[in-house]
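It is worth pausing here to work through a concrete case rather than discussing structure prediction in the abstract. The textbook approach is simple: state the sequence, then state the predicted structure, then interpret. We follow exactly that order.
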Amino acid sequence: MRQIEYDFSKFKNQEPTLVSVAVRTEILDKVSKAFIDKYQDATIINIGCGLDTRFLRVDNGRIIWYDLDLPEVISIRKQFFQESERNKMIAKSVFDYSWIDDINTNKHVLIIAEGIFMYLTQQEVKDIMSKLANAFKGAEMLLETTPSSLVKQNQKQDLIKDQYEIEARLQWGIKKGKDITKLNSHIEFIEDSHYFDYHKERWRIIRWLSLIPGFKDRFGNRIVHIKIN
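Step two, the predicted structure:
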């Protein structure tokens, strides 16, 4: 953090955001680890990796891990992490589908999309899912989703920019985890994990509001676990 020219202090008083990121990390680590325990020679594709360190936390000494992000992001990433035979970096946009040809995969593939799809349009998400469905049949995927109600609210007020001074806009969301199957006929819903169901004591007033029917579907993010058939 000290080596990155970024003002992290803007998050100091954003406890719900900090809890959300921590919970998101816990869920993704847990499900990724379970997948790797089941398929010990798995291939993992981390879309929009940023400076994520998940490979270091879940590596079993056998998996092959690909970190994919924009060239400028990967150039920063390489200041802190080194590639290896089992942990490779791909400096391409997710929309530059030539990255798919850079993947040497086996039949057990897990794709992770953390903090990315909600900033894309629904058509862009559909296009990505169509490419993934064609290229990685039988793969499983973990993707973070935001409620469609927050997307609608963001169209009236730029929530991300107003709160965090970040140039990003919510554009796509779903109400229920199972809604993800509407994106592509090859998607099979496995389960979803709602952030508000974890460490409830840390959510303060949200802990009680989440007991109201429909509240979680309107205001909380979740990790959706799917399979591509």
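Step three, interpretation. The longest strand covers residues 187-194. The chain has one domain: 8-228.
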